[in-house]
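Q: Could you predict the 3D structure of SIS domain-containing protein?
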Amino acid sequence: MHTIEAYENDIKLQPEFLKNFKKQKPISENQQKNTIFTGSGDSLSSAMLAEVFSNFSVKSLDPLDLLKNKSLSKNRSVYFVSISGNTISNIKVAKMAKKSVAITSKPKSRLAKASHQTILLQSPNADVFTAGSISFLESALTCISLVSPIRIPKNNNFYQKAYSEAKKSKISKRIFVLGNMHTYPVAMYCAAKFYELLGYNAHYERIEQFSHMELFSAKKGDTVIIFEEKNAHNTQLVKNLKKVGLNTIIPNFDSKNKISQIIFYTFFSQLLPLFEAKKQHKKDCNFVLAKNLRKVSDNMIY
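A: Sure. Here are the predicted structure tokens for SIS domain-containing protein:
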């Protein structure tokens, strides 16, 4: 099976998975003050979601920062989000932390063995090396459930709505994905899917900061995607961006429920680059084909 097909198959498993998602018992508010979530790549996005849904009681930090600043984890509980369980920075920090908890799909991984406790991710997948989709959704919801009560609305149409919004969206090869407090981690995840599937020049930023910084690198025809329900601020932003020739997309999703928004924007982030890849008749993900770059990545990560 080619990796684009495997990625698509994994995406399609998610609506059914949501019906059976097993949430975790939340960490007490007192314990959260001494808790850190960490991870790399998609997993850092999940860790960042834990931080914002805890109302910043827990902290999300880069594992390399923890490794280089050992005092940060010395008297704290550290939750390591890692699907493979083999990221070397995580493993080294897990051995130093007062209490280390691995959130992984590999119970026999080096991270699981180095940690005091393991939370096992058990979502189904195509068992093919491809871009992360359902594994991210499960890790993100797991992290959120550890810091906050979580309820996934029944009879939802997240997937169908995201499919429709992504299908009608037109993008360029240079993309800026913007998010707010709760959706910024998903904006980061979205940019990662454009890297992995297509090798596109994608950027992620907070909505406010974009107007201060990245905007000045934008060129006519570039695409700006905004992950936030429509309001006066982003309506004005879209109006101004269109005036200077930028393509803007605000996926339409009518819900103020933060969990619903996270799920919807996650699906949209997965489907938009998938549709672009299929339009170009791609069979395999860019990161799978970029063997030399992946070798560099593997040498640094593992």
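Q: Anything worth pointing out?
A: The CA atoms of residues 27 and 82 lie 19 Å apart.
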